[in-house]
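haha ok so turns out i had the wrong file open the whole time. this is the CORRECT one, sorry everyone. sequence first:
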Amino acid sequence: MRLFFSLVFTALLLTDGLAQTRRAKDVVYSASSDWQKVTLRPAAARRPATPTASASVPTPASAATPDGPATAAAPPSSPPTRRPAPAADPGYRPAFTGDFATNRNGWKAGVKGDYQYQIGLGKYNILKRRATQQAAFSFVPLPTAINLNIAEEYTIKVDIVADSGRIPTGGVVFGVRDSTTYSAFLLNGNGDIAIVRMADGQTFSDYMPGDYFKPGVALDKNRNRLIIRRKGDLLHFYINEQEVRSSPYPFKMLSGNGIGVTTTGYWTSFQKLTVTLGP
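then structure:
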């Protein structure tokens, strides 16, 4: 009988142990200050994630920095547009003025030899100080942009003024190398004119008269305007816009590129001297 109870008791113990293995076991952990009851349960097995097909999304072109958000890339810059240079004004014509106001061109001034040279207020006055046969002479070089040998068209103008009631004496010199080599367009007190080419102090008449002659046009007392125009291979000479007798003359190379004035009168004033390229 005792054996029977022992077997039954053993069977009950085995049945109870098996049941406990199927129940969740309560495990108690000890903390330093509090008691906590933690129940451990068997975790359900997780199914592997099934990859889902996703639509292909184009990745925008961007520039991302490790520490900052991605920024949209700037579109390629177009090359800078160069503006064409402004066209030269077709009406522009290089010009030289005597500038008888400030004397920035460096005209002869003060007492020089037998003459006194006064410049100012747009006038270049030359006064003879004593009786002499020498002529007053003053010139300056033209700018390099105005070359009387290269330019095929140009105009030289100057007003020559004398004492009231007198025809001026003197004129304009051009193509000047120095005081002994130049060409000139001259008047005298008798109303005659001369078109002269000088070389080393000698007068040449190979293509210009050299001597004084009647111009065939009227000269005014007190003031006259002398004009020289080059038109291609010809030189034209005018007084007060009227072309003189025997003009034009064939153009030949000038010895220099200076411009100036000369006179033998007692008092002579030169005004409005200009040299202009073009017709």
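The CA atoms of residues 65 and 71 lie 9 Å apart.
again sry for the mixup
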